[in-house]
Design goal:
alpha+beta; two-stranded antiparallel ribbon; 12 strands; 32% strand; elongated
C-alpha cells in the first residue's frame, strides 16, 4: 500500500475511500451481532443464561433437560455440586447415597469414617469382617 502525504489542509484520497468502505462494514457487523443476540436470548429458557453464541446453560440449582432447565431436588443431608452431569448433588460427609436420598453411614465400634466420609475403616489392631471390626 502506498502512503500518500496530503498538502496542508487536504485529506489524502486513499483515506476517504477507506472510510467509505470501512464504516458501512462496521455498521453492518454491529447490526448483525445485535440481531443475533436478540434472537438467541428469546430461545433461552427460564432459569438459564446465554453462554457463547446461541448456546445457554442453566443457573445453579437447575439441570439442562432437553430444551429447558429443571430444578434439582436436593435431599436432606446433601448439597449441590454444580456439575452438569449426574444428579447435581452429593451426600454430606458421614452419609451415603441410597436411591434419591442420603442415609447415615453406620460406623461400628472400633471404626472411623475414612477418606471423604463415604465409608469407614477399622482402627489399628482391628480388621473388617462384614459390617463390624474384630480384634486381629
Amino acid at each position: 500500500m502506498k502512503v500518500a502525504f496530503a498538502r496542508p489542509g487536504q485529506a489524502p484520497r486513499h483515506n476517504v475511500h477507506m472510510v467509505t468502505l470501512v464504516v458501512p462494514m462496521i455498521v453492518f457487523t454491529i447490526a448483525s451481532i445485535l440481531s443475533c443476540s436478540e434472537a438467541a436470548s428469546s430461545d433461552v429458557p427460564e432459569h438459564a443464561y446465554t453462554t457463547y453464541g446461541d448456546s445457554w446453560s442453566c443457573e445453579r440449582g437447575f439441570k439442562k433437560t432437553r430444551d429447558k432447565c429443571q430444578s434439582i431436588k436436593v435431599p436432606e443431608h446433601a448439597f449441590l455440586t454444580g456439575n452438569s452431569w449426574g444428579d447435581g448433588w452429593k451426600c454430606e460427609r458421614g452419609f451415603e447415597k441410597t436411591e434419591n436420598e442420603c442415609q447415615s453411614i453406620k460406623v461400628p465400634e472400633h471404626a472411623f469414617l475414612a477418606g471423604y466420609g463415604d465409608s469407614w475403616s477399622c482402627e489399628r489392631g482391628f480388621k473388617r469382617e462384614g459390617d463390624r471390626c474384630s480384634a486381629e
